[in-house]
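haha ok so turns out i had the wrong file open the whole time. this is the CORRECT one, sorry everyone. sequence first:
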Amino acid sequence: MHITRTIDETRTAIAAAKAHGRRVGFVPTMGYLHEGHLSLVRAARENGADFVVVSIFVNPKQFGPNEDFDRYPRDEERDRRSLEQEGVDLLFIPSVEVMYPEDSTTMVSAGAVARPLEGQRRPGHFEGVATIVLKLFNIVQPDVAVFGRKDAQQCSVIARMVEDLDVPVRLVFAETVREGDGLARSSRNTYLTPEQRELAPVLHRALRAGEEALTRGVEHVETVEQLMLKIAAETPGVEVDYLALVDPRTFARPADFYRDLLLAGAVRIGKTRLIDNIAVSRASMPHTRGRG
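then structure:
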């Protein structure tokens, strides 16, 4: 596995691979890798990539002033070993100074899909995400890029950006990898104490309760959301940030129930904030079954 730390050497390595007809797959990460990240590497290969690039960069522009940028978990050597075992071809590990030179001022406006839920609670977060992803796309110039569905709103922001700005990349959104009790894999799970870890699956249980209501035919947004809140409230020590039923294209309240829907949630357990979601397809709801 080749490791690069500058933009020029990264571009040179990728240009050489493309000159030999290699198809480039890209997995951008913030490091401290777990099985969810490694599944994205496999998804890149499954989607036709024969030269896989992974980046590790903890992006300061997507963290708010009171968030966990300084304490976000980092372990470059551990990550390197994991990626070598997965057969990754190129690992790009830039510094903040490489990605954001001192005179860098341009940011990408993420648009309407970035405003609700996470965008409302983390002002500027998605502008930071869109900016770094576009910069990485310009550096790597991948044929296919893979992201995890756990960050569903991020996926929608990136998809909108790629479409609006005519970025020549095919996006793949891979399914969330979970622990046995339903907790979505996340680097931030390492913040949880053993006692807090026992509480964490409540977020997934609440979302599953909302999913069950929809597949039983409930067609009332407030009813579904109140049911999820009730499930979460049964576990002391869990503070709900939001539990919402939204249109996955806009992240606004759905206009009707004749469409794909998304149940999204965020909770705090101690100082740790966890997010998750469950997609509910139009075909799984009783009033649409059998319709074209």
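The chain has two domains: 2-174, 187-284.
again sry for the mixup
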